[in-house]
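sry for the spam today, last one i promise. struct tokens for design, 741 residues
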């Protein structure tokens, strides 16, 4: 674009107020290493990098993804883009990165600004080394080298105009040093084997390589699509620290609320094709955004309801009095069509899925669920033992999170528990009534030409046939159509083909295929990947209320904090240890452990891996062998966590820390804070209801005229009192954690 046009756009829109910063999380002290990517070379803080003016984009020329988007990005900005699946978040990122076109509006770009882009699923070239993958990437620096090589090849020794332009680009991006720069960023993101073939990399390693490519040449604007997917917590926390630099501008899409709060200072919400900008940043800022969104949606719903009432009146007038209509002013006719649009402007509806909190939502579960005894797993063709002597008895109501660095064996452990892998040694016993539902990290292959509803019907019919063949009785349950509706697939959408689904919609379809089996053992491997934040919240709330056994692996710390009552920790040596607490508490203790070890070593910093000192868990409260043998180990928040057996998950006692720090008091998580606020009002309302019922009971008892009404009121009052007692007990628990009592 021309500098004149950019200056004109800048005068129209101005510059947003810079953000002062968000609370910085504790440093884990582990690799990846500091990179200092925030030192922008082309721009400085406050300089405008990009202006979007009334931007619009449709899908296949039909479905309007967004319209009228107007915003700017300046150096130092940290902007999060949120919205439901299918709202155009990923498309908008590609448009901003210059990788996709738009249908309406304009984008003004700072000509000298460098842009780095990290896609949700990195398309790394096949059959090349890690280093070559970065050198062949689509970064500004790599493109400059490719253009220079092409110009050099066609110049035949002459100094052509193309070669001069290519050399100027090489100088602009300092691309003469691309090899050294590529090695620098790869080392910074924790990739040490630069000759490794990308075909053999795990999902997390591929994401790191793609991130290194995006960071190549120190971009001024970094565009990130779900950067935390497939990453372990050490890498996620590293990104938080690096992305908060003063001069670096970031535009990202993420479902990780903690990551978003730790990095971003503004939030661009896409909802119903429209955009809303919110100030953001810091602890509980996502909660404040939710409150603002709820307030807006209620106002929208009320306005739409009023518009529908007026629209009906105007429609009757338009239909019944054509002659009068001709005589009326054009203004009233225009108002009619405006009312039609306003009546349709209803807020986005939330999902209402039920995992197992309502009758018929899950199969009946007996006392015996799944028991693993001295389970071991060795990778075929090698001597590496990923899982060693794992013994655990899963009981109804258990809610366990599984944590560990990338490659520690988390998914392998889930596969063993689910029965998808056979142990190299030991045994797995499953109760007769146990029905395992496994949401794997990668969804199963589905025929692209199959209709969505037909896919779920096939699974449902197969389940019914198995039950009938075994002489069982089919329970009352949701039909495939109703289940899909609860997961956001409206009836017209259900009859479309699988090929039309977005990444998030495919994840929801995979979830539907699991839930239609009515599992009472729910195993979730990275369940939040590809889901929008609203869906993650619904998933989280339903998992919390699930009455069966839950096991989950997730890099989403907020999700883990809110659903897992205890943790199984994989340390990379094959052993699995039990931690009695949530994910944030575990990370806090590990940070304290690292600091103690560094202090004992004279300040030396560990750089041997993201979980270098995890095996020295010291302060972690693992159940002792005696507790495990007697089933008396400590239990998590719900008092349920499984009975640990001899030689169990905590079979290897952790050595004492070099300088163990006292465990800090636990703080309320976001959802606990919300629950705490609501409980006070709920208890007050229920108490008022109880008092009214009590007055009614006393009056009926004195009159003695209606014994049936007296009995009914007494039963209702007793039920209300029981609810008050339950909520009061929970309120006391939260108040104690909050330090209010």
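last one done:
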């Amino acid at each position: 674009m021309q500098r004149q046009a950019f200056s004109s756009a800048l005068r129209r829109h101005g510059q947003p107020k810079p953000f002062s910063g968000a609370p910085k999380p504790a440093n884990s002290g582990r690799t990846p290493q500091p990179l200092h990517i925030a030192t922008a070379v082309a721009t400085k803080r406050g300089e405008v990098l990009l202006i979007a003016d009334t931007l619009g984009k449709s899908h296949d020329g039909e479905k309007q993804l967004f319209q009228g988007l107007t915003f700017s990005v300046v150096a130092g900005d940290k902007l999060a883009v949120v919205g439901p699946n299918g709202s155009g978040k990923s498309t908008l990122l590609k448009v901003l990165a210059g990788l996709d076109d738009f249908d309406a509006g304009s984008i003004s770009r700072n000509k000298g600004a460098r842009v780095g882009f990290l896609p949700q699923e990195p398309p790394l070239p096949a059959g090349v080394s890690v280093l070559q993958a970065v050198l062949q990437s689509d970064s500004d620096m790599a493109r400059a080298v490719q253009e220079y090589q092409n110009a050099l090849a066609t110049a035949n020794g002459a100094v052509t105009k193309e070669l001069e332009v290519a050399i100027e680009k090489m100088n602009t991006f300092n691309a003469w040093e691309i090899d050294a720069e590529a090695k620098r960023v790869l080392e910074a993101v924790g990739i040490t084997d630069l000759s490794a073939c990308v075909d053999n990399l795990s999902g997390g390693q591929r994401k790191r390589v793609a991130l290194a490519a995006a960071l190549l040449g120190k971009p001024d604007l970094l565009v990130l699509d779900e950067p935390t997917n497939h990453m372990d917590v050490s890498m996620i926390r590293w990104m938080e620290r690096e992305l908060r630099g003063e001069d670096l501008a970031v535009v990202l899409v993420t479902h990780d609320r903690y990551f978003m709060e730790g990095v971003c200072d503004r939030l661009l919400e896409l909802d119903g094709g429209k955009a809303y900008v919110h100030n953001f940043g810091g602890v509980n800022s996502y909660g404040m955004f939710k409150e603002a969104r709820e307030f807006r949606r209620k106002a929208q719903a009320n306005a739409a309801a009023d518009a529908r009432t007026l629209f009906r009146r105007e429609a009757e007038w338009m239909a019944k009095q054509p002659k009068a209509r001709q005589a009326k002013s054009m203004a009233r006719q225009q108002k009619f069509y405006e009312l039609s649009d306003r009546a349709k402007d209803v807020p986005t509806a939330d999902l209402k899925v039920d995992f197992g909190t309502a009758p018929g939502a899950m199969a009946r579960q007996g006392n015996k669920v799944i028991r693993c005894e001295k389970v071991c797993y060795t990778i075929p063709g090698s001597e590496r033992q990923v899982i060693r002597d794992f013994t655990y008895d899963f009981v109804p109501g258990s809610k366990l999170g599984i944590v560990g660095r990338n490659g520690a064996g988390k998914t392998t452990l889930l596969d063993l528990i689910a029965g998808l892998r056979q142990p190299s040694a030991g045994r797995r016993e499953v109760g007769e009534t146990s029905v395992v539902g496994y949401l794997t990290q990668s969804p199963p292959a589905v025929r692209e030409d199959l209709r969505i509803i037909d896919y779920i019907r096939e699974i449902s019919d197969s389940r019914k046939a198995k039950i009938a063949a075994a002489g069982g009785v089919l329970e009352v349950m949701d039909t495939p159509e109703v289940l899909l509706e609860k997961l956001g697939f409206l009836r017209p959408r259900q009859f479309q083909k699988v090929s039309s689904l977005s990444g998030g919609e495919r994840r929801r379809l995979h979830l539907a295929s699991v839930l239609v089996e009515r599992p009472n053992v729910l195993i979730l491997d990275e369940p939040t990947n590809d889901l929008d934040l609203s869906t993650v919240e619904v998933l989280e709330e339903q998992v919390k209320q699930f009455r069966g056994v839950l096991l989950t692996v997730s890099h989403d710390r907020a999700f883990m904090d809110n659903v897992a009552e205890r943790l199984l920790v994989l340390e990379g040596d094959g052993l699995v240890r039990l931690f009695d607490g949530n994910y944030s508490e575990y990370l806090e203790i590990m940070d304290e452990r690292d600091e103690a070890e560094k202090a004992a070593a004279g300040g030396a910093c560990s750089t041997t891996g993201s979980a270098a000192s995890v095996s020295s868990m010291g302060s972690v409260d693992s159940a002792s062998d005696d507790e495990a043998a007697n089933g008396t180990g400590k239990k998590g928040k719900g008092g349920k966590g499984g009975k640990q057996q001899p030689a169990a998950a905590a079979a290897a006692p952790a050595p004492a820390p070099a300088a163990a720090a006292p465990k800090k008091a636990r703080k309320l998580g976001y959802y606990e804070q919300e629950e705490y606020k609501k409980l006070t009002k709920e208890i007050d309302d229920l108490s008022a209801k109880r008092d009214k019922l009590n007055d009614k009971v006393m009056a009926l008892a004195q009159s003695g005229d209606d014994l049936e009404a007296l009995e009914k009121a007494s039963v209702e009052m007793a039920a209300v009192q029981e609810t008050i007692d339950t909520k009061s007990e929970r309120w006391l628990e939260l108040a104690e954690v909050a330090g209010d009592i």
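The chain is about 40% helix and 15% strand. ok im logging off now
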